[in-house]
Amino acid sequence: MRNTAPQRAALLLVAALMTGPAAAEDIGRELRRGESAEGNYLELGLGLRAANGPKRHGLDADPLGLAAIINGCFQWKGVFIENHAEDAHGLVLGYGLVEQPDWSLDLLLTSKHQRTRHEGAAWRVLDTQADRVAGLRLSGTAGAAVWQFNAWKDVSGRHDGFGASAQLGRAWQHGNWNLHALAGLNYSSAKVLDYYHGVSAQQSAVTGLAAYRAGAGWGGAAEVGASYPLARDWVLRSTLRAIRNPSTVRDSSRWSDPKRTATSLLLSVSHVF
Length: 273
Description:
Elements: H1 5-16, H2 27-33, E1 41-52, E2 55-56, E3 64-76, E4 79-83, E5 92-99, E6 103-110, E7 133-142, E8 145-154, E9 162-174, E10 177-188, H3 190-197, H4 201-207, E11 217-229, E12 234-244, E13 255-257, E14 261-272
Antiparallel strand pairs: 1-3, 1-14, 2-13, 3-4, 4-5, 5-6, 6-7, 7-8, 8-9, 9-10, 10-11, 11-12, 12-14
């Protein structure tokens, strides 16, 4: 009997659990904390998020709102679970395949895109589902900088697409302040972008929007931030992020306000356990 893509990903993960080193962390988490946090940790808090960017038909995004902060990483014999409120991709399940002094390689199972639920009967035909992707994450250091490469493939059957990304960042310590900067590029295949940004002939007939087929494309993201310890277990964080959409989706008729770049500012206070 032939295994499906999700079954193959699960078998690969189970096989990897037989042996292996400790897992590396996402470099965004490392830079925001100002340290390489090996081992378990949990951070809970509340933040205020202000956002500005392109708007979609049938989706009313609040430009200002409260955000729950749930950051953490739990490891056991190479297996790890991560969650980063700043990234909004959901839980990351992974396993550390290789751990060297200057680089590491992890196997990941996570989500790259969240579902959308449109308001109004006519717009609901544009609803999308969250995907599940399996991939590899290569991380390392180059002097004071940290870098990371990701490659992934959809295993949920939502769009059967694939993608890759590269990030480079650095942190600075100034008194009790931890400052960081992070920038990266990401690539998504045509199947990914067309599922989340395209408009099919059927969707066009229901909504009246022009049919649109999105192609593969490159996007970018940049982030700067600062954190300050308010007390032994309390920390104040601020993160400013800008995300630039691929050029292949900017003309999609899904946009009611097709801005090229989305920006957000998150201010939060968290308790670190």
